[in-house]
Amino acid sequence: MQSQETPGVHYSRWNEQNQDEVSVNTSSTETPAWRRAYNVLCTGRIGIVMKVLGGLALFWIIFIIGYVTGYYVHKCKKG
């Protein structure tokens, strides 16, 4: 028999009244907000779009850091 804390369905064909019995146990706790946000933003089509946009943003951030670093490393000295 299942614990009361785990969600699930319990079907009992044989009981005292000789009737079928179905009981559904649902979890009393709700899914955390971070998990719902993850499911919306990181799965499906929206997840693919978010990953592509994140990759492009990361590319440009690294490009700009490299450009600025290269500018100051290779800057001609006046003097």
TrEMBL record:
<feature type="transmembrane region" description="Helical">
    <location>
        <begin position="48"/>
        <end position="73"/>
    </location>
</feature>
<keyword id="KW-1133">Transmembrane helix</keyword>
<protein>
    <recommendedName>
        <fullName>Small integral membrane protein 1</fullName>
    </recommendedName>
</protein>
<keyword id="KW-0812">Transmembrane</keyword>
<feature type="region of interest" description="Disordered">
    <location>
        <begin position="1"/>
        <end position="27"/>
    </location>
</feature>
<feature type="compositionally biased region" description="Polar residues">
    <location>
        <begin position="14"/>
        <end position="27"/>
    </location>
</feature>
<dbReference type="Pfam" id="PF15875">
    <property type="entry name" value="DUF4731"/>
</dbReference>
<dbReference type="InterPro" id="IPR031744">
    <property type="entry name" value="SMIM1"/>
</dbReference>
<keyword id="KW-0472">Membrane</keyword>
